[in-house]
Amino acid sequence: MTPSAPTQPSTKTITRDDVLRLGQQGRPREFLCLAAQVLAIAPQDDAMRYLVAANLGRLGLMTAATAHLDTLLPASQHEPDVINLRRALSGLPNDRLDPSQAVSTCRRNLDAAGEKLAALHEHLDAWQARALQSRWQRGLDGTVFRRDDDAPWIPATGDVLADARAWVASLLPPGVQYAFDAIIEGLCPPWALMQAWETTKAPVLGHTPRVYVIVASPLEALDALAMADLTQPLADPRVEVFAGGGAGERFARALLARVDYRLPRSAFVTPGQGERATPTVMETLERAHTSQSAEHERLTQTCATLYHGRDAASWSARFAAAASQPLRVLISSSRYSTFVQHSARDQAGAWQARGHHARVLMEPDNHSQLTTVSYLRAIADHRPDLFTVINFPRSTLAGACPPNLPFVCWLQDAMPHLFSESIGASAGDLDYWAGHCFPEMFERYACRRDRALSLPVLADARKFHAGEIDPALRERLTCDVACVTHHSETVEAMHARLSSQLGAAVPHLQGACGALLGVVEQSIARAGQQGVQAWLAAGTQRVLREALGAEPDARTLTQVLRSFVHPLADRGLRHQTLHWAADLCRAKGWSLRLYGRGWENHPTLAPFAAGELAHGEELRAAYACAGAHLHVSLTSIVHQRLLECLLSGGLCLPRVHPDLLSGCSLTAILDLTRHTPDADEPERVGYEIAKHPAALRLASIKARFGTPLPGHVLWIRKVKLEGMRRNARLLSPDHDADRVLGDLREVGFASRGDLEDVLTRCITDPAWRWQAAARARAIVRERLTYDASVDAMIDLVAGRLDSREEAA
To answer: Please, which residues bridge with residue 303 across strands?
Structure first.
């Protein structure tokens, strides 16, 4: 059998007529690239040259266009089209740029760049002599060209600006939160640098990418500096310029020094440049990625050797001996989350205060992203006995942690990746959960309860304490009412932002966003009368059912609730409460301060904006110096800000709605399960309220906040009791706001009228305020600090947590 010939790729030949047609379609840069090739072969092609002149005119390059018309044959000079084109060109703005102006622009840019471009100064005199003899021309879009004479010429580099814009857009692909670093070779013209810098200058949670610029020719670099005002990008520390001799080698050294962090994905090579960097930027980029992969493999093997043979039993023994043999702990942080930064540092401080060796791993600057190499190197260097990462389990780190190193995922935020079928299945015997142990993770997604430690929220007792306040801080921060929160974005703006994100992630739910906002608004209006969470869940399920034409699956429902509906409802409750406070303070002459980002831009609450506070002594003073601080949350009263306020000697007043009393209910029920029921029916058991202090306490709290218990018996469904026994490890008494605050009935509020009453008492009765704050502060110091969490985590890994909780 004779094999068939391979199919040849089809090619398209562009004819002269094709080029002429393109020259009449209003695409000058595309046309000029091809026309230059035609005229190089047939310089007397007057029809082509006429279109070249016309397209140069479209770009505003009057001088070059006129020079091309001047070379037409005498017979063509009198053609009406040529005469009309000359007339049109004469009406264009003068495209000549004074050479001295170009030199001044170059020098300003050099001054702004400072040491970055110090190597170019030795070439400046020679360049300036050439520049002053050159012809500088500027097009309508601002592009500047340098020519040695007035001979006809064609800019044949294409549409550099459009190409640069398209490439810069690729630096932030879909699904990526932080833009990739940019690599640009060549600066004539400097549009890629200007586009990359302008597009990425606004920080995303504090992150801005690096911009690398490589120009091998010093004269080309100086030409580029004369073409536009580049002072801002050149002065920006994240813009690194490698110009002149050895530029390629210096760039290679810089990039290879950063293989621990996320590397750039691509480079923009400016067309038309002369001398190229050696090695080329693409060779350097490929070498960096190869080096990073090799380092990952090497460190993976190193870490595997370090932890070879370690199993759960050996680690249990190691942690049991922690009192006499200090542990080594590695805590991953992120400079792009204020909470994660502070939490990681506070955890490390608590471990160190207990005599252990703790290290925090974090990005070295605002332009870097950690990679698996970052994690593996930190593990190889520190050799930890425990690795803690906030919000991310081991399975999400893609080989960044040896499987037999104890790993704690510190749960703080309900992030979507925590609610998936794989989250529990991928966890091993040495994977632990601490912090906010979300019930869905254990009920629905098979996370192990015996590896969980419920620590809903903690504070740093060394940073926040009731000691003396600096007099200057006291004078500046004293006020009647305060609230510390960065959640200044309005409900309307937040809804628009979340709608865009939801629509991008799940396009067929875009149309449901308006209806979901309606569900949120209804829940806020009814917050004082019924459970907000149940209303939100039922309303969201109904809206999704209508949008999808079928019942939503559990994961979709959970994700929409957690990432869209709940955050929006939380924001609505928060802003409604702050408007109550603002109205009361205006009416009574009290002072109100809103600390945090963005309040100065709020349409109605801006008059109360007081700026951001440093997380430390300044924040402690603000807590202590206000008559009362307000706390509002959809999901929890026991929050870090509340604990920090109490530890600092302040008094925090929480807004209460029925859902937030679930911690009180759970504590009461757990207490009642130790007693024999007063009534036993097939599906429920009952306890006479008057006979049991825990039931009396719960009844009093519920009555105070508008949802009294029905009748004189507290009935509990047996299935609920079974669920509570099953999830006992997740039901920390520290969820009970009444226990934490000493008496929720005195300091909580559920309505505008309640808020007025408790604020009046705080402001007019300092003795009561002091007693209430001191009582709560003592409780927090005992149970809800990072110091207390260290002992609990040691017991968790050592396998002693159950006995510890029983003793407590």
So the answer is: none
- Rounded CA separation 400/372 (Å): 4
- Spatial separation of the C-alpha atoms in residues 21 and 162, rounded to whole Å: 22
Nearest to 581 by CA among 613, 604, 603: 604
Q: Which of 254, 250, 271, 97 is nearest to 181 (CA)?
A: 254
pLDDT of residue 5: 34
Q: What is the pLDDT of residues 476-486, one digit of tens each?
A: 999 999 999 99
Q: Exposed/middle/buried for 545, CB within 10 Å: 0-12, 13-18, 19+? A: middle
List the alpha helices (DSSP H) in 635-751: 640-647, 662-672, 693-704, 718-726, 737-741, 744-747
Q: Which of 344, 632, 604 is nearest to 484 (CA)?
A: 632
DSSP state of 561: I
Confidence of residue 224 (pLDDT cuts 50, 70, 90): very high
Alpha-carbon gap, residue 774 to 651, rounded angstroms:
9
Q: Which residues pair with 359 in a beta bridge?
A: 330
What is the phi/psi pair of residue 742, to 5°? 90, -50
Task: Give the burial class of 485: count Cβ atoms within 10 A of its Cβ; 0-12 exposed, 13-18 middle, 19 or more buried.
Answer: buried
Q: Are 473 and 648 in contact (CB under 8 A)?
A: no
**Residue with the two structure tokens 């770009």:** 59
- CA end-to-end span of the chain, whole Å? 85
pTM: 0.75
Helices (H) and strands (E) in the chain, counts: 36, 20
| CA gap 58, 55 in Å, rounded | 5
Give the mean pLDDT of 745-749: 95
In the β-sheet with 182-185, what is the strand arrangement from edge to edge? 239-243, 211-215, 182-185, 268-269
DSSP character at residue 459: B
Contact 724, 669 (CB under 8 A): yes
Q: Tell me which residue of 542, 557, 567, 560 sits closest to 444, measured CA to CA.
A: 557
DSSP, collapsed to helix, strand or coil, labels residue 765 as coil
In the prediction, which pLDDT does 438 show? 84
Average pLDDT over residues 767-796: 91
As a whole number, the mean pLDDT across the chain is: 91
The DSSP output letter for 217 is: -
In the chain, the domains with their CATH numbers are 16-93 (1.25.40), 95-306 (no CATH), 307-454 (3.40.50), 660-736 (no CATH)
pLDDT tens, position by position, 300-343: 999 999 999 999 999 999 999 999 999 999 999 999 988 888 88
Residue 456 dihedral angles phi and psi, to the nearest 5°? -55, -40
